[in-house]
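User: Can you predict the 3D structure for this chain?
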Amino acid sequence: MMTANEIDAIKNILASPKKIIIIPHRNPDGDAMGSTLGLYHFLLKQKHQVTVISPNEFPNFLAWLPASEKVLIFEKEEHKCEDILDKSDFIFTLDFNALHRTGDIMKASLEKLDKTFMMIDHHELPDNYAKYTFSDTTYGSTCEMVYDFIDQLSEKNLIDKTIATCLYTGIVTDSGSFRFPKTTGKTHRIVADLIDKGVENNKVHNQLFDTSSYNRLLILGKALQNMKLLPEFKTTYITLSQAELDSFNYQKGDTEGIVNYGLSIAGIDFTAIFIENTAEGIIKISFRSEGDFDVNQFSRNYFGGGGHKNAAGGKSDKTLQETVLYFESILKEIKK
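Assistant: Here is the predicted structure, written as structure tokens:
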């Protein structure tokens, strides 16, 4: 929780109408979009002028979120976004704790700003760019933190169905539909309150998980065909090349959640997915684990990434084949 002095300072800042910016991380997921839009609707009810600026496009399966159509995309409207940032009074950054997570282009713009930042985030090792920081790794999602942030401001009565729906979305996605280890009794108590506020949880679940395009299912099929099993390391991994993605008319978000299939095999406690992105010249990587294997540290050590103990991401500048060979060589070294 934040200190009483910090809460008082934020209350004073929000006591009169401000021009406020809310920023999620690059390649925003359900928790990033849910928390930013949840906070967006809350601050609108407090009569602030609020803008959400995402570093890049968010997945299509989140486009149903209330006011998602009003989100500005920095990499599409750079000059417009920089002008709005320059004129802002206060900036929230949600679901990330280092400015490089917004991408090189936006990071450079944010570093030049002489503005007051507040960070709300649940990842490890936060940077110190924000004057106000609500950082706590015990939370399973940033949306839970936004709920508690609103509660600490003594404004929980302002949480309506719209805000609750956004926050519920981030909680259900970042908790793996309530099955990940950081899903606590408190998580369920928050969710119960959000449902009492009007969240139609069955409809949210349908939007997130049960509505799919034909091509997305074909990509899943190809990914499962490409899965490699390494029983000696209790590991699986999946590869998807750019050519394979293109052949199925890949859209942003089509690979979301595929990495989790690798953990569904008995005896497997570590999995990865390697996705080629020729536009960025990198291999994008997601890691998942069960039990004590720390994929956050693994990703930090070998793939310039990070995240949580059981869910993390990274990248590689090598080719897809070279990246996979490097990954397998690391496993051999770790086993030794």
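The mean pLDDT is 95. The CA atoms of residues 1 and 232 lie 43 Å apart.
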